[in-house]
Amino acid sequence: MSTAQQASTQVQAYPQVAVSRSRWSKWGGWLFVRGTLALICLIWTLPTFGLFISSLRPKDALATSGWWTALVPSITAERARTASAEAQQEIDGRYVITGNVFAEGDNRLVDNFGGGFLGGDISDYVPGQAVETAEGFTFLLNADGSYELSSPEPFETTTGYRFFFEAATPPRLTLDNYIEVINSQGIGQSFLNTLTVVVPSTVIPIAIAAFASYAFAWMKFPGRQTLFIIVVALIVVPLQMSLIPLLRIYSSVGIVGTYPGIWLAHTGFGLPLAIFLLRSYIGGLPRELIESANIDGASHFQIFVRLIVPLSIPALASFAIFQFLWVWNDMLVALVFLGQQQPVLTVQLAALTGSRGDNWEILTAAAFVSIIVPLLVFFSLQRYFVRGLLAGSIKGG
User: Fold this and answer.
1) What is the strand order of the sheet 89-91 is part of?
2) By CB atoms within 10 Å of each CB, which of 67, 104, 112, 239 scores lowest?
């Protein structure tokens, strides 16, 4: 009997085994794909989650521990001194000094203490444990920070006795960072400045690119392919190369620091990508539809307005998301062409940290304040997003 016949006989003899293996193979592939996607999503969203938790933490907690410790008490090493001999009282034949290592209203707790006049290390004693020193003192430190130092002989210290302790700060989430950002001077005006820049800088390139894309896709004119290649090649040109030449041109015509100037800049930087995306989509529309409109006597403008624009809503929405997010998050172009006289939101938020980054903690809250509007735009247009990106990838789709 040949090898193939033996394998066939084994499969016929054990059909349930073959079906079971096939089923496990199918489920194994399903679990692998889903597990990989879940892991990628987790890795991608973890920094954002950490940034959000950090935005809700007090400034002192941000400076001493990471966001992953937000729900557990943070331990910090502290040092303190008892009161001087002037505060001693005689009680039952012993001289006693009392006090508290925490200020009034402080909600921290003592985790352990030691060192200094107590000897040993900072972690040698726990709150509530009475410590006998070599000088004959008895020292008691409670979890709430209150202490009692007693001695059979009068104290003579003028500065108190130094010791060390570790304080546990309970976890606390607060909106103070957001309140500070929102109440900062100039935030409201910079928000309006950003909207003034973003809306025209998104609408103008979409309108121009839609006309140009229709021309590249359905109109015949000399040099069409060459001109389209040049436009696409401009996508890879860094915008930083054009900042100084544009600034010199703007200075000569007197539009530096004006809104029309930055509108034109964002339009020029966004047009190559817009034409590339829209031309791919518009060129993939059914040819029969365009030819039928031509036969009926429709002009190019009528075809564009009545057919192309309604059918290209997904592509227009996709580019609107790209352009809106890019302009909203832009700081370099706004700083160069608009300056600090009319700062946009990104420039104003950067100024909140100070020239030396002293207030860097509020950047976590500022980041979420600045993404509220982009999130609203994205979720309102997301149903068109994937359709606009993929619909032109298949000819005639």
Assistant:
1) 89-91, 94-100, 146-151, 138-141, 130-132
2) 104
